[in-house]
Amino acid sequence: MASLLLSYEQQFSTLTAEVTQRMGTIHNYHGTERKSLISSIERQLDEAQELLEQMDLEIRELPNSERGKLMGRMKSYQTEFNNLETQMKKAKTTNNANKLRDELLSMDDNGTDDQRARLLDNTERLENSSRRLEVGYRVVMETEKVGQDILDNLQRDRETISRTRQRLRDGDANLG
């Protein structure tokens, strides 16, 4: 049994070393190559989990005197495995975030000229609209002034007509 346990430990060590090395290279891959690497690493992690379970079963079958010392090693293996899983999750999410960032940045690089052209077009339209509004405002102000002048003239004409009518009445009254 001890040789079987030693074999499991060696396999686990080899497997975790390979997983660690491969996880360090994930950022170098993109697309399907990256997905393939990740699935391969996940399979290796599953295999490492199975090795841990086998080691645990073997340790539980040992006498109490040997079991205590080996349970400490088993806990360190489990901790190492948990750390690898955590690193794998981080590598997956970090790459997703990096991928989104890269896409956004590449859109910025590719779209800069187009965005600049659209911005300039929109600025030009805004300036043209502002000029038209200013011209329209001036026309409204001039129309209002002309209208006010007309009303003033009409008021003067009315007063003139009213005075003339009053004089005619006064003249008719003097004649009559």
Number of strands: 0
- State the name of the first-level CATH class: Mainly Alpha
What fraction strand?
A: under 5%
| Rg over alpha carbons | 46 Å
- Under CATH, the homologous superfamily reads t-snare proteins
Descriptive account of the structure:
The chain is mainly alpha-helical. The chain has one domain: t-snare proteins (Methane Monooxygenase Hydroxylase, Chain G, domain 1), CATH 1.20.58.400. It has three helices and no strands. The radius of gyration is 46 Å and the shape is rod-shaped. The chain starts with a helix and ends with a helix.
Overview in brief:
By secondary structure, the chain is an all-alpha fold. The protein has helices at 2-23, 31-60, 64-175.
Keywords:
mainly alpha; 0% strand
Helix and strand arrangement:
Layout: H1 2-23, H2 31-60, H3 64-175
Helix pairs in contact: 1-2, 1-3, 2-3
